[in-house]
Design a protein that fits this description.
184 residues, mainly beta, single chain, globular, 12-stranded parallel beta sheet
């Protein structure tokens, strides 16, 4: 619970839907509901892209008494970028924490010490470099990972992959070359 409260205090503009909160903090549905209820603001604020209910900002402090055991305090913080279908980001994304992208982006993504997750309906045209990359959407561009690249059943990559480990789920697609240097 302290980690979730810390995430809200560190990122006062953080806006999450229940499914996003479940993925971000690895919570089941009822626990996620309890956590979001504890962080529910006095008045609702609409997600600026989707019009969905959001969670509490820095000025509204929750009472964590009823849900202290609800949060998984061992997980690292994660930034979730949930863009509307018509919103496209052009440029470079870099962060010093794990990032999940939903939506459209063109440019480059650099997370040398962290994990990048591409959401199931994301369309990314970028050169990607990260510690680990999980792909559930569409990626057009080269992907470099220091640890591993995982292409899930709904994921596709059109471009080259360089990583010591590669996993492609049944249904996942790869159109490109693979270089697998030794890990270490």
């Amino acid at each position: 619970m302290q980690r979730i409260q810390h995430d809200y205090e560190e990122q006062p503009s953080l806006r999450l839907t229940p499914p996003q909160a479940q993925r971000l903090w690895n919570l089941d549905g009822p626990t996620c509901g309890a956590v979001l209820t504890a962080f529910k603001p006095e008045r609702q604020v609409a997600n600026m892209w989707k019009g969905e209910e959001s969670v509490r900002s820095r000025s509204a402090r929750p009472d964590p008494s009823g849900v202290a055991a609800a949060a998984d305090s061992g997980s690292a913080a994660q930034v979730v970028l949930d863009l509307g279908h018509s919103v496209v980001i052009h440029g470079e994304v870099s962060a010093s924490e794990d990032v999940t992208l939903y939506g459209q982006m063109e440019g480059s993504i650099k997370l040398p010490d962290h994990t990048l997750t591409i959401g199931p309906h994301a369309h990314i045209k970028a050169e990607i470099s990260a510690k680990a990359v999980v792909i559930m959407g569409e990626v057009i561009g080269n992907v470099t990972a220091a640890d591993k690249v995982e292409i899930r059943a709904t994921g596709s990559v059109t471009g080259d992959i360089a990583s010591p480990r590669l996993a492609i789920a049944d249904g996942g697609c790869l159109c490109g070359r693979v270089a697998m240097p030794h890990h270490g």
